[in-house]
Every structure is written in structure tokens, then in C-alpha cells.
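On clarity, I found the account of how folds are encoded harder to follow than it need be. Since the whole study asks how a given chain folds, the encoding of that fold should be made plain. For the editor and my fellow referees, an illustration may be useful. An entry of this sort, consisting of the sequence and the corresponding C-alpha cells, reads as follows:

:::
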Amino acid sequence: MRIAVPGAIDAAVFRSFDSRARVVRIAGATMGTTWQVRAALPAALGLSSADVQAMVQFRLDGIVADMSHWEPDSQLCRFNRAEAGSDWALSDDFAEVMAEAMAIAEASGGAFDPALGRLTDIWGLGPRPTKCDPDPDEIAQSVRLGGWQQLAFDPVAKTLHQPGGVWLDLSGIAKGFAVDAIADLLAAHGICHALVEIGGECTGRGLRPDGDPWWVDIENPPCTILPPLRVALHQLAVATSGDYVRGSHTLDPLTGKPALHQTTAVTVLAPQCIQADAWATALSVLDTPHATLIAEANALITRIVRRDGSEWISPALEALLEP
């Protein structure tokens, strides 16, 4: 068993630490998957598990209404249908996601791209099912009409320009944002120590009442015999992108086709889950040599697992591993 532990405990968490708090587990459904929260619930708050479940679900439903490419009335889908030349005022949530998406698109050289909506549509990765792979002409047209470089986003005014025919798909970043949003929601209500998970993406805030961090085991693909890796999620988030469960569903924005190379899984740790989610997607698109270069250049805490069962551990992750 390998253990990854942050270098220091955040002293601020002790201001809200309560060793007598009761750990509750609540769960639900969102974004085509499930969510769950394990929270240290101080008795003094007067909140029940049902209260917490209701406020978490309400928050998640609002995010879906904003950024789902499955809901035809979402703000994202309405933007995708908007006339060429129109400018859209985004919600605070949408604007925050777009700011991070554009930053990581640039830092990754376009490996992460929030404007892949037409490609995910023709490959059947959205609400419209397909019976066969798209033909080369259809792929080429979708690549031409998409691309994050065509988007004009104003982070101050929180507006996004629709140049015409560009479709967004934020499925590579929205879950991570939602994880952070729920952790922030809980903290705003006095629940500062919790583990939040949506579809496998997690963030750990504070500590468990017994003083331990929130422990998470990183899944190994079945093709490997790698030693287990356990992470202390103390003020950290983790996301994994891979093709060993659902097959090749990560698309390469450059070719418009599924990213097929020697990498089968990428795990990224970051202070915020929105960052971990998007970077895990970006590094999954790149072949292993390019992914390792990008990871090192951006000091990412990363593990890349190859199809031959070997792994690459980034220097930033190596620094967290206990001897």
C-alpha cells in the first residue's frame, strides 16, 4: 500500500473541528450518475440529514439547469442554438466554469476543449444516440465548426460570444465544479469537514471527527497489478479519467476521433476538483510523452497508467508519497 499525504495540515480547519460531530452519509442522483456526501455534522447546527440532502440536491439541480448538454432548456443548450453574433450573459456558476475551461484549454494546448459539443453529438456521447461511427466528412465539419479558440469570453462582464454554430460540452469539467460547489455550500452552512463525491470525482475538506483525513483509494485499471494507492484528501480533490470502464469516450479535439494511445487512466490531484477534472480529461487526450511534459510543466500531481500495466508518477505526486 502506498500512501499520499499533503505536506502540512491546514491550521484553519481546527477552528471548526468538533470531535463529537456525527458523520452522516447522504446520497442522490445528478448528471447521469450518483453523488454522495459524508459529512461531520455538528449537533449545534440543528440540521438533519434530510435538510442537508435537500439543499445539496437543490444546488446540483441548479447546476444541471445551467450547464447540462442533455437538458434542452439549459442555458448551455440555449447558447448552442443561439444566433451567430449574439452575446450571452452567463450565470456566476457558468462564468466560473468557462474561465477555468478557457485557462486549461490554453495551458493544455487545446487538449481540453469546452467547445466539443458537435463532436460529442456525432459520436453519440450526448442525448442523441447513434448506431454507427460518423464518416470522415462529418468529423471534419464538426472539427471546423468547434474549437475553444472561436469563443470570446469576457470574465469581467461574464458574457460569452456565439460566433455561429459552436456547441459547448462541459462534461469534462462540470462534475468537478459541482463537487467544489457542494463542498462550498456545506461550509457556508457550518459543515466544514466533509468528503464530497460525484461520479468518482472527490474533494475532502477538513478532517474526520477522529482526527484522520478523508481517505480515498485510487482505482487501478484491471489490466494492471500496480500496488494500491491511498490518498489523504485533506484540502485536496481528485479526479480520474480512463477508458477501462466505458471504453474510448474521450475525444481528441485535433482529430475529432476518440483518443487511442498507450494511456488507459489518468488521475490528477488538485486544490480544487474543477482543476483536477479538467486536467484529467486533457492528459487523457494526449499520448503519454506529451502528457508527462504538460504535467511537469504545470506542476500537476498526477499518475498516468499505461495499457502495458506500467505507470508514471509526476514529481509533484512523488513528493506526497510516504517513504
